[in-house]
């Protein structure tokens, strides 16, 4: 069994992880142009969610999402033009723009959340509750292990 770059992952392990990634993206339809049958892309939806969570400056969003500054800037401008977010100058530092959801942005996010909840409920409707608990525990384990610095 060959390993990659002397690391502890075998080529077969990498293939299995990539296969699961493709499955996950397909089952949640993450490659659809519009997320959850809305007119929003997955990044637009995620930006609305993160702003609502308090990641409300471009720098915070860049850190959380690990995306190109120009790309996020263009998408934020689009959300602002659609009157889903506002930008206000921070009182503590005039260079910083604080982002906030508008009432329309809050309504859009509420609909995205509703559809996401429905998607997951539909996906797991035929899965036994014991199996759901095990799946969630496995997801938490993945998050814990991949979040270690």
TrEMBL record:
GO molecular function: DNA binding; DNA-binding transcription factor activity
Keywords for the protein's UniProt record, in alphabetical order: DNA-binding, Transcription, Transcription regulation
Keyword RNA-binding: no
Superkingdom of source: Bacteria
Gene3D superfamilies xref list: Winged helix-like DNA-binding domain superfamily/Winged helix DNA-binding domain
Transmembrane regions listed in the UniProt entry: none
Domain HTH marR-type: 1-144
Protein name, as recorded: HTH marR-type domain-containing protein
Taxonomic source organism: Companilactobacillus versmoldensis DSM 14857 = KCTC 3814
């Amino acid at each position: 069994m060959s390993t990659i770059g002397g690391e502890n992952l075998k080529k077969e392990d990498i293939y299995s992880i990539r296969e699961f990634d493709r499955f996950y993206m397909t089952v949640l339809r993450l490659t659809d142009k519009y997320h959850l049958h809305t007119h929003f892309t997955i990044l637009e939806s995620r930006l609305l969610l993160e702003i609502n969570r308090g990641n409300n400056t471009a720098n915070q969003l860049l850190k959380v999402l690990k995306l190109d500054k120009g790309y996020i800037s263009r998408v934020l401008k689009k959300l602002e033009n659609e009157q889903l977010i506002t930008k206000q100058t921070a009182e503590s530092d005039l260079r910083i723009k604080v982002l906030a959801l508008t009432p329309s942005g809050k309504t859009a996010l509420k609909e995205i959340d509703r559809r996401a909840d429905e998607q997951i409920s539909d996906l797991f409707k035929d899965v036994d509750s014991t199996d759901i608990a095990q799946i969630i525990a496995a997801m938490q384990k993945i998050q814990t292990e991949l979040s270690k610095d």
